[in-house]
Amino acid sequence: MNGKIAIVLLFLGSLLISASAGATGHGAGKIPPGEAGAKTALERSPRHHEWVDIDVPGRDGKVTIFVAYPERKDKAPVVIVIQEIFGLSDWIRSVADRLAADGFIAIAPDLLSGKGPGGGGTDKFGSRDDVVKAVRGLKAPEVVRMLNAVSRYGRGLPAAKDRFATVGFCWGGARSFHFATVQPDLSAAVVYYGTSPESDALGAIRAPVLGLYGGDDARVNATVGPAAAKMKELGKTFVVHTYPGAGHGFLRAQDGRDGANLAAAKKAWPATIEHLKKHLE
C-alpha cells in the first residue's frame, strides 16, 4: 500500500513540475533583471548574441550594436533598445536579451561608439560620470541618424520582419519619444521615465506611444500631462501608466523604494510586451 502511495505522489509531483515548466519555459511572466543581476542573466542566457559594427551615413566611424535573437520559427519584428544616460551597460544588454526571450530581435546600439578614449565606446570611459557627460553631449540629429541606421540594419536581417519599435530608458526614454516625432516608419514607441517632446513636435507622430513612469519622479512627470493632453487633442495614441511610490529608473533599480520599484517593474514590463506585440506582430 505504501508503495502505491509513493508511486501516486511521484506521479503527481511530475505533473506539477511539467505544469510549472509549461508556464515558465518560454519566459512567461518574467521581467528583465535588476542592475545587480544583469551580468549573470547574460551569461546564463541560451539565446544567440552578436556584436556588429554598422555604418552610419553622415557620421565618422561605425556604431557598435549588440543584437539578441529570439528562438522562434518565423520572422521576428525588431526592437531598438535605447540606453540610459549611463551608456550601453550590461543592464541595457540584459533588457535586450529579455526582449529576445519575449520574441523580438532586440538591438542595443552603443551611441557613444568612437567617442571614448582611443576611439572606443562606453566601456572605454574611465568612470560613469565620464559616460554621463559624453551622453549629455550627444546632439539629437546625430542620435536620429544612428537610430535610423540601426533600424535599417535590423529590418534587413534575414530573420526580421519589416516592422520595428523603440524602447528607451531615462535619457533613452526621451530619445524614444523624440524619434517617434521624426521617423514616420516607426511602428511603436515605449518610453520608460523619459521626458516628453515639446507640444509642437507631437503632430508628426504616427506610432502609438506607451509611457511608463514612477509616481515619485516629478521632474519627468511634469512633462507628461501636457504631452498627453496634446496627443489626445491630435487624436494620437499615448497610453500612460504611472506607478505610485516608484522612483526614476525603477526597472533597473528594482530593489529601491521599499518594494515600489519592483511592483512597478512587474506591471510595466507586461504592458511593454503587450504594446509591442499589438503593434508589431
* Dominant shape: globular
Total tally of structural domains: 1
Strand content: 15-25%
* Percent range of helical residues: 40-55%
Main pleated sheet:
8 strands, mixed
The CATH superfamily name is Alpha/Beta hydrolase fold, catalytic domain
Number of helices: 9
Q: Compute the CA-based radius of gyration.
A: 20 Å
What is the third-level CATH name, the topology? Rossmann fold
The overall strand count is 8
Cα(first) to Cα(last) distance is 54 Å
Mean pLDDT: 91
**Known CATH architecture:** 3-Layer(aba) Sandwich
Low-confidence stretches: 1-28
- CATH class, named Alpha Beta
Order of helix and strand elements from N to C terminus: HHEEEHEHHEHEEHHEH
Helix-strand category = alpha/beta
Tell me what the structure shows.
This protein has helices at 2-24, 38-44, 90-101, 128-136, 140-155, 171-182, 218-221, 224-234, 260-280; strands at 49-54, 63-68, 76-82, 105-109, 160-169, 188-192, 209-214, 238-243. By secondary structure, the protein is α/β, with parallel strands linked by helices. The chain has a single domain, classed as Alpha/Beta hydrolase fold, catalytic domain (Rossmann fold, 3-Layer(aba) Sandwich), CATH 3.40.50. The chain has an 8-stranded mixed β-sheet, sandwiched between helices. The protein is globular, with a radius of gyration of 20 Å.
